[in-house]
């Protein structure tokens, strides 16, 4: 165990430091992938750049981190997809329920420049650029009382969701009552019965020990929201062409690395959760998919969104 | 480390200079932080980011509990609550020698368990108890010292705005757990004061109060029950997980409002004034929180805690010595600085260090709040010290000597709280709020 | 100067009282909607948070007018009257500079930068929400000027 105090080691160096704001702890696969990318990037640029990642919201929450990147106060951040909707509506398409069939389908779309190039560059006016996207896990419903198999099973249950209108509508269609709440309060709220459960990927479900209090984890697979890596335009423009090329290459490698790491992390998380009493069950996904389809229609208002949604669906053919 | 050193020097020198010459604390902290920030990320970047940190630092649902608890306190204080609580305290402290002095301590603890303000408590309880004690032959200096020495216990007994501020500064420690953890140390504070009174009363043969009949006791209790029920509903609800601290604080407002309206101790036409009074108290704390978030960001960005850890604690790995030094620094700082700004400044520095030694965040929070509460009565300055001597009609110098024994015992309790974590953690553990 | 102060006081105190009262009702309603009607609201929590920051900022400006913010006074009191006067003036100047440069100028840039970003649950511009920073900064600047004016008048009499 390192004995150094404070969560970040800032190197004494002549290199240009690239500062990254990150919301999860250091154990997260995204952190690990970015950190190793930093080491490789440092080597390949002969020490011109050094990446320092601030974990656990040390520099601020994700929405605020976007603004820090825009200002140029920091250089990079990892941002959940739902926040990108606040800048450009079309990002919402990738956050719709059941829009991706599998992790492979999702990563295929997120890396397909024919589909995403316009979207990723659409925020450049705001002083930032989307450099790529991590897999952010698959969100499933968990609760205190029993396995969920159909939307009727969720009837009357208060399920904690991330605060957004789409999410509230979605949970209502799925049968439950979506209750937005800060993650810090969720454990006690479930324990005391204020909430009946939550929805999240296996990693967070296990890390937050929610298995102890809400042991029924049902694979509704309703959301697969990407996490975007954003960088300030200042950072990218200040790099030489050669360094820029290496940088983008390394970002791609980091994403591939994270996707590989993710599966084994999920397996470990499941083991931990099972040891804490969790029971995992499969679900009638078709019923849920049908239930939430009006939400999708509601969200696809602009021609651009519809086009994007169609592109995603055609890319799904090999994965069905 | 160079960047950290540069930022730390600018930060502390500018803040200290401005503080000493009497610039408002919030502006001193804000100004120092912005200059440090500009020196590391540039002029425009520094300005925009400062404005953002100020705003987002206050933009928290948790912090909303502060104006509501303040408002509930103001409403209750307007409604003759102090007298009812003092009568109840009389019954509780019984016929011990020096019973009126004990009554003062108990009344301060009861008052603190409803409102979070030690200053309001010292004023309200002191105003009523002072004349009563004088009539029974207590020395005025002694009664003032008792009142001053025991009033800060209410800052640790929940509800406690200071603990809410710590929760925020430490990155979201559970408020329910902090609240429930505050009871035992807060009560110990009161008991320590009572022990001092007990010894002095026997030596100086202080008077006992007359016997209260069972019927009288019943009436007194019945009158105090509506106020006490607030504790049961609000703290019970928060700790039992029925609602969040913020929701509980809103319920406290509604409850105290309905209670005061029904007892006709306030009327609706008083509400604008009451709201404005609560606004004043609240915004002072909140503006400070806002600017402190600029400072916290500078500290996190440059990793100042590591720099301080190596320079302040580099000579030792012994957690006992480290905690002792922290307490010493906080006692010193707390003498001059109010608990809220001191928590906002020192939590981001000390907490990562304590954390790396496996200290529990709840334990650490109670320790830091306990310590800084002592600062409100440490001469030569402190809000409770000032108000306590003013309501007694005494000069500051006159209360310092009789206050000393109380000051010493509270420091002893602080040492207990620091080195016996069980005192803090046992109640939350029993209630399953801590694992 | 006195009329400006009176006008500002009236404006800000009324605003704070209304906002505070609204906040109490809003959060009470949120608790009620969650427990009695089983209809949790994402809108109310966001709205409450932003109203609260606005209350804090505009209330702070009001309290700067009353010179009510905490300060360490006891060292200042050791100096001569003339030095105290200069220190008080300097203190107002520092307050003015902070409000002008950080809150007003920094705040305006922040508002411009975030004007096109929308808040998910409220559906309004984040820049609009941030505008409380430059606005309250402007009020603090005005109050500091008024305070300096009052100080210099007291000095002369
Ligand atoms: Na209290
Ligand atoms: Na003091």
TrEMBL record, chain B:
Compartment(s): Cell inner membrane
Domain TRAP C4-dicarboxylate transport system permease DctM subunit positions: 12-423
Taxon lineage: Bacteria, Bacillati, Bacillota, Bacilli, Bacillales
InterPro entries hit by this protein: DctM, TRAP_DctM
Native source organism of the sequence: Shouchella xiaoxiensis
Residues that span the membrane, as ranges: 7-25, 61-86, 106-125, 175-199, 220-243, 249-266, 278-300, 312-333, 340-358, 364-386, 406-427
Keywords: Cell inner membrane, Cell membrane, Membrane, Transmembrane, Transmembrane helix
Predominant subcellular localization, coarse grouping: membrane
Official protein name in the record: Tripartite ATP-independent transporter DctM subunit
Pfam families per the UniProt record, alphabetical: DctM
Bilayer topology: Multi-pass membrane protein
From TrEMBL, chain C:
Main location as per UniProt: membrane
Recorded topology in the membrane: Multi-pass membrane protein
A Pfam family recorded for this sequence: DctQ
Transmembrane in keyword set: yes
Keyword Cell membrane attributed: yes
Location(s), subcellular: Cell inner membrane
Stretches assigned to the Tripartite ATP-independent periplasmic transporters DctQ component domain: 23-151
Key words of the record: Cell inner membrane, Cell membrane, Membrane, Transmembrane, Transmembrane helix, Transport
Membrane-spanning segments: 12-32, 47-66, 87-112, 124-146
PANTHER family (alphabetical): 2,3-DIKETO-L-GULONATE TRAP TRANSPORTER SMALL PERMEASE PROTEIN YIAM (PTHR35011:SF2)
Similarity comment: Belongs to the TRAP transporter small permease family.
The protein's name in its UniProt record: TRAP-type C4-dicarboxylate transport system permease small subunit
Organism of this sequence: Shouchella xiaoxiensis
């Amino acid at each position: 165990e390192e004995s150094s105090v404070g969560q970040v080691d800032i190197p004494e160096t002549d290199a240009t430091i690239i500062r990254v704001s990150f919301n999860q702890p250091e154990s997260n696969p995204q952190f690990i992938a970015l950190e190793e990318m930093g080491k490789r990037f440092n080597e390949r640029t002969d020490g011109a750049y050094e990446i320092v990642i601030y974990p656990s919201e040390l520099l601020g929450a994700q929405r605020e981190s976007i603004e820090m990147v825009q200002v140029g106060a920091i250089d990079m951040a990892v941002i959940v997809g739902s926040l990108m909707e606040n800048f450009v509506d079309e990002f919402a398409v990738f956050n719709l329920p059941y829009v991706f069939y599998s992790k492979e389908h999702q990563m295929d779309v997120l890396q397909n420049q024919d589909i995403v190039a316009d979207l990723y560059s659409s925020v450049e006016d705001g002083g930032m650029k989307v450099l790529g996207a991590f897999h952010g896990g698959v969100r499933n419903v968990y609760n205190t009382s029993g396995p969920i198999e159909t939307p009727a099973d969720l009837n009357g249950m208060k399920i904690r969701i991330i605060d957004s209108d789409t999410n509230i509508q979605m949970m209502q269609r799925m049968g439950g009552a979506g209750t937005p709440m800060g993650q810090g309060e969720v454990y006690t709220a479930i324990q005391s019965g204020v909430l009946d459960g939550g929805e999240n990927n296996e990693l967070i479900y296990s890390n937050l020990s929610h298995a102890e209090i809400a042991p029924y984890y049902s694979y509704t697979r309703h959301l697969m929201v990407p996490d975007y890596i954003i960088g300030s335009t200042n950072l990218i423009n200040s790099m030489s062409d050669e360094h820029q090329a290496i940088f983008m290459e390394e970002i791609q490698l980091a994403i591939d690395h994270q996707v590989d790491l993710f599966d084994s992390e999920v397996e470990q998380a499941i083991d931990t959760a099972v040891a804490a009493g969790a029971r995992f069950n499969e679900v009638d996904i078709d019923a849920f998919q049908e239930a939430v389809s009006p939400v999708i229609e509601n969200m696809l208002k602009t021609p651009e969104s519809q086009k994007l949604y169609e592109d995603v669906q055609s890319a799904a053919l090999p994965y069905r | 480390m160079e960047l950290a050193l540069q930022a730390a020097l600018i930060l502390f020198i500018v803040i200290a200079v401005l503080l000493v010459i009497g610039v408002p604390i919030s502006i001193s902290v804000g100004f120092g932080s912005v200059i440090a920030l500009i020196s590391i990320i540039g002029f425009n970047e520094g300005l925009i980011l400062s404005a953002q940190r100020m705003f987002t630092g206050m933009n928290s649902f948790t912090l909303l509990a502060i104006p509501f608890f303040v408002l509930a306190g103001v409403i209750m204080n307007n409604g003759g609550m102090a007298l009812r609580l003092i009568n109840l305290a009389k019954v509780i402290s019984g016929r011990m020698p020096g019973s009126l002095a004990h009554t003062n301590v108990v009344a301060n603890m009861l008052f603190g368990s409803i409102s979070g303000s030690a200053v309001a408590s010292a004023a309200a309880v002191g105003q009523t108890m002072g004349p009563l004690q004088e009539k029974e032959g207590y020395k005025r200096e002694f009664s003032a010292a008792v009142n001053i020495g025991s009033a800060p216990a209410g800052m640790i007994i929940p509800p406690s705005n200071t603990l809410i501020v710590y929760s925020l500064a430490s990155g979201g420690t559970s408020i329910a757990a902090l609240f429930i953890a505050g009871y035992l140390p807060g009560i110990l504070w009161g008991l320590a004061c009572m022990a001092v009174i007990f010894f002095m009363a026997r030596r100086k043969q202080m008077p006992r109060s007359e016997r209260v009949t069972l019927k009288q006791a019943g009436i007194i209790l019945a009158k105090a029950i509506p106020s006490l029920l607030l504790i049961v509903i609000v703290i019970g609800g928060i700790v039992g997980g029925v609602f969040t601290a913020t929701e509980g604080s809103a319920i406290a407002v509604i409850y105290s409002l309905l209670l005061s309206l029904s007892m006709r101790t306030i009327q609706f036409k008083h509400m604008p004034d009451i709201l404005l009074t609560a606004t004043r108290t609240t915004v002072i704390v909140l503006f400070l929180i806002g600017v402190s978030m600029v400072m916290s960001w500078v500290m996190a960005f440059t990793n100042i805690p590591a720099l301080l850890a190596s320079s302040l604690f580099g000579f030792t790995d012994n957690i006992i010595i480290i905690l002792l030094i922290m307490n010493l620094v906080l006692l010193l700082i707390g003498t001059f600085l109010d608990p809220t700004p001191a928590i906002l400044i020192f939590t981001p520095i000390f907490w990562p260090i304590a954390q790396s030694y496996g200290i529990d965040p709840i334990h650490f929070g109670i320790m830091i709040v306990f310590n800084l509460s002592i600062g409100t009565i440490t001469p030569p300055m402190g809000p409770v010290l000032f108000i306590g001597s003013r309501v007694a009609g005494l000069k500051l110098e006159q209360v310092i000597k009789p206050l000393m024994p109380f000051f010493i015992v509270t420091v002893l309790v602080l040492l207990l709280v620091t080195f016996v974590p069980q005192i803090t953690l046992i109640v939350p553990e029993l209630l399953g709020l801590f694992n | 100067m006195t009329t400006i102060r009176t006008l500002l006081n009236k404006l800000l105190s009324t605003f704070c009282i209304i906002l505070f009262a609204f906040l109490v009702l809003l959060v009470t309603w949120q608790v009620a909607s969650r427990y009695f009607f089983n209809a949790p609201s994402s809108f109310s929590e966001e709205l409450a948070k932003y109203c609260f920051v606005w209350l804090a900022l505009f209330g702070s400006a009001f309290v700067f007018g009353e010179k009510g913010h905490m300060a360490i006074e006891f060292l200042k009191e050791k100096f001569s009257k003339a030095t105290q006067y200069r220190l008080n003036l300097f203190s107002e100047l520092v307050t003015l500079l902070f409000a002008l440069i950080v809150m007003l100028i920094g705040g305006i840039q922040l508002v411009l930068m975030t004007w096109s970003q929308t808040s998910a649950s409220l559906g309004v511009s984040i820049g609009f929400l941030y505008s409380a920073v430059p606005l309250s900064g402007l009020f603090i600047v005005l109050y500091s000027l008024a305070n300096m004016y009052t100080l210099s008048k007291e000095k002369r009499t």
